[in-house]
Amino acid sequence: MSLLTLARTVIWAALGELQDVTRFMAQRPDRALLLPSAPDADLAELLHHASTAAIWPVDRHSSARTQPPHRDEHH
Question: What is the pTM of this model?
Answer without folding.
Answer: 0.76
